[in-house]
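Good morning,

Attaching, inline, the backbone tokens for the sequence recovery test we're adding to the shared suite. The designed sequence is right after.
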């Protein structure tokens, strides 16, 4: 029994790094995130929190902090192009990217209005405005995001 214990232990030890690096490879995302995905993810994080608390005037100070992060991420998104633009024929690509930027600008204006309403303590308008921005998100994704 003792005779096989040592080779067995040696084998396990030798295999351990190989196994763990195989696990690491599995955990990694299949594709590298695009810069736009990164800023959209940042936007999404604060957006979800803001939507949850938007109706509550007691949380307006915190909502303004969330909104500042949202505004920064939305403005950052303006400097990127959708990944889908690569699939658009060259002669239509500029138009496609311009359409994307126009919609992002509308979203930026929407968030600027949310800021005014939050500062005025008009939570009813804040909630309505967020619903409108949610529609912009849906349109933007339908038109410019690569289908899953
Ligand atoms: C409240 C507003 C919005 C939220 C919360 C939001 C959130 C997200 C999320 C979570 C993703 C997926 C990121 C990933 O795969 O890691 C995404 C991707 C994307 N979004 Fe948005 N989004 C918003 C508005 C918009 C608007 C208005 C547009 C277009 C004008 C847009 C265009 C895109 C595109 C094109 C992608 C794919 C990324 C790429 O092409 O590289 N999004 N968004």
């Amino acid at each position: 029994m003792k005779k096989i214990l040592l080779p067995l232990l040696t084998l396990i030890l030798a295999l351990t790094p190989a196994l763990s690096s195989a696990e690491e490879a599995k955990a990694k995302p299949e594709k590298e995130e695009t810069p736009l995905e990164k800023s959209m993810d940042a936007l999404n994080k604060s957006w979800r929190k803001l939507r949850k608390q938007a109706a509550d005037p007691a949380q307006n100070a915190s909502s303004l902090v969330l909104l500042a992060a949202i505004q920064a991420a939305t403005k950052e998104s303006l400097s990127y192009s959708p990944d889908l633009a690569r699939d658009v024929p060259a002669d239509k690509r500029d138009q496609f990217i311009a359409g994307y930027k126009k919609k992002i600008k509308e979203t930026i204006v929407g968030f600027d209005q949310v800021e005014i309403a939050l500062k005025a303590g008009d939570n009813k308008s804040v909630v309505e405005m967020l619903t409108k921005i949610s529609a912009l998100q849906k349109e933007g994704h339908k038109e410019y995001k690569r289908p899953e």
